[in-house]
Amino acid sequence: GIQVEQSPPDLILQEGANSTLRCNFSDSVNNLQWFHQNPWGQLINLFYIPSGTKQNGRLSATTVATERYSLLYISSSQTTDSGVYFCAAGGNTGGFKTIFGAGTRLFVKA
Amino acid sequence: DTEVTQTPKHLVMGMTNKKSLKCEQHMGHRAMYWYKQKAKKPPELMFVYSYEKLSINESVPSRFSPECPNSSLLNLHLHALQPEDSALYLCASSQGPGQGSTEAFFGQGTRLTVV
User: Fold this and answer.
1) Do A96 and B106 touch (CB under 8 A)?
2) A48 touches B: beta carbon within 8 Å
3) Cβ burial, residue B44 (10 Å; 0-12/13-18/19+)
4) How far apart are CA A82 and CA A38, in angstroms?
5) Which residue from A7, A39, A83, B58 lies 20 to 30 Å from A104 (Cα-Cα)?
6) C-alpha distance from residue A101 to each of A2, A21, A60, A87, A105 (Å)
7) What is the Cα A9 distance to its own chain's centre?
8) Maximum alpha-carbon separation in chain B
9) What is the mean pLDDT for each group of 10 consecutive residues in chain B (115 residues)?
């Protein structure tokens, strides 16, 4: 099955800094999502991005499907950005067998 | 509305109890999922239902029994669980085959403790 790897595993930033999170996947995908999990466990949808580039405020994401990676950019980080960021990918089973990477744990210091 | 509702939010059960987790969505999605998440780990896929039929079972022990009574509801019946089954159980839904994108939306989860 598809393998999903995220880096870095942990990241500490000063408020206002920028960061890039990476997600590598082992096979072609029909589904690629980025989530932010808050301290209460809620998975918040950030991007659905099997290919291309999207932006939403201070966040943007790019997926290069032919090279099997996706990047999540966080600009001007805020303390509320702290939490765990997951990349999840679904492969050729119509995208329904969605597998999560291990996550990047982000802490933004005030 | 992109809401998936799970009940209860918290559940404590003994190893001999039978309980059920419930999940509901009204987005017209025809694919629904159960995930299990242990502390400091990513969610792990347990089951996928597509058009109310079980399409993926990730070799989950039979003490977990899923049910999809209609296109809006998904249940997870629990029986004779072990303490190591304590975890956050997440339900998700997405459009089904032929409906469009497979973007998944998650509920807030049920935090289960087995004593």
Assistant:
1) no
2) yes
3) middle
4) 8
5) B58
6) 10, 12, 19, 6, 12
7) 12
8) 43
9) 90 96 95 96 96 94 97 97 97 86 93 97
